Amino acid sequence: MSELSRTTDTAPGPGDSPVRFGVIGAGFIARWFAQAVALEPAARIVTVTSARRERAAAFAQEHQVPYAHASLEEMLAAHGPDSEAPIDVVYVGSPNSLHAEHATAALEAGFHVLVEKPFALTAGQARAMVKTARRTDRFLMEGWLSAFEPGVARVREALGRVGRLHRVVLSKEQFSSRMEAYRAGHLPPAFDPALGGGSLMDLGIYTVNLAIHLFGEPDRVTATGKLLDSGVDVRGTVVLSYDSGESAGLEVICLHSKTSPGTESTFASDRDVVAIDDCQWPERIELRGPTAGRSTGEGAQAREDLSVERGAQQPGRQLIYELAEVCRLVRAGARESDLHPLEHSVAAIRVLEEARHQVGVRFPADSQD
Ligand SMILES: NC(=O)c1ccc[n+]([C@@H]2O[C@H](COP(=O)([O-])OP(=O)(O)OC[C@H]3O[C@@H](n4cnc5c(N)ncnc54)[C@H](OP(=O)(O)O)[C@@H]3O)[C@@H](O)[C@H]2O)c1
Predict the structure, then answer these.
(1) The pLDDT value given to residue 344
(2) Whose CA is closest to 113, among 19, 210, 217, 26?
(3) One GO MF term, please (predicted)?
(4) What pLDDT digit, counting tens, does each position of 281-310 carry?
(5) Is the terminal CB of the chain with fewer CB neighbours within 10 Å at N or C?
(6) What integer pLDDT is reported at residue 2 of this predicted model?
(7) Could you give the domains of the chain?
(8) Pocket of ligand 1 (CB under 6 A)
(9) Which atom of ligand 1 is nearest to the CA of 56?
(10) What is the best residue among 29, 76, 205, 322 to mutate for testing ligand 1's pocket, by most ligand atoms within 8 Å of CB?
């Protein structure tokens, strides 16, 4: 697999112009995206649209975006290759339930697409999006930032040292400010089944994507979860079982919750453990056991610090590696990422769909497949 160095080589060369983005959404993630673009010379935002005209206009003013549109149709029509302000890539930062529709509309209009996680709500939608990208010959990728993180590259290296894994526990849990709004009687998008909300789709996706990134698609999925009155899940567990292939015998236990603080994630072989502080963007990474002892000379109880300096919480830093890689790929004429290929995004949605059905979370999109 490619390593960190290739994700950072995006400085424009002579004659290279920045990759031009149109943004859908003016909310939380669109702000992170704009802050990352401000730090990335290879990228520029040309235009934005949002559900409400005034939100798009305010976003454009705040982030010095030259154009704002009242609808996606208007934005796509205004920024074609022969227009006065063409764009190359549409960044889909709208609610989960609109990812498939918005990504498909942008691909059909001839643009490359970076669509936020989760890629889609159903496996049927995910497969159709990939088909559209292939037919229109455009770049398509799910914005799962972890694939491009230096901490995940470090984990890949560490796992190569510890031998066969038996048990992996991946945790993505955080108390959500939107939980407070829900308890106060509101229905934020994160807890609205009509918008594809819930803990599995919002946080469980990080654990499932990481498992598929490292070990491929599991053979069996077993899920439990706690439902809110709104009909979405607020926390739960997904067990991914690997019965065959290189990872035969491995169980990955995915913990996700919007009502608890996070815990560390661990990868265990017979004698060694790799522990990480967070499975979205690992920074504190530790190898514990005899393999660490071999390099430190300390024996079986040894601990080797494999941490990376990341600064993910600083404005603009969150999406910086993902954005750099998308710019590099689009400039190179790629149609997907080899680090986070489309078949992984489809597999993750298949797993999440199965988990949702076992837990009892249904979306309107389920009856459209
Ligand atoms: N990669 C990450 O780390 C990360 C982190 C957070 C979220 N996300 C993902 O990002 C997506 C958005 O989440 P968020 O937290 O940013 O939500 P948010 O703050 O509610 O923002 C959603 C935005 O979508 C806009 N929108 C809604 N319907 C639209 C339509 N029909 N056309 C155009 N725009 C529309 C809203 O417009 P108005 O503002 O005009 O109402 C709003 O600006 C979700 O899929 C989420 O999973 C990813």
Answers:
(1) 98
(2) 19
(3) nucleotide binding
(4) 999 999 999 999 887 677 778 999 999 998
(5) N
(6) 30
(7) 19-146+318-341 (3.40.50.720), 163-313+346-355 (3.30.360.10)
(8) 24-29, 49-52, 55, 72, 93-96, 98, 116-117, 143, 145, 189, 202
(9) 40
(10) 29
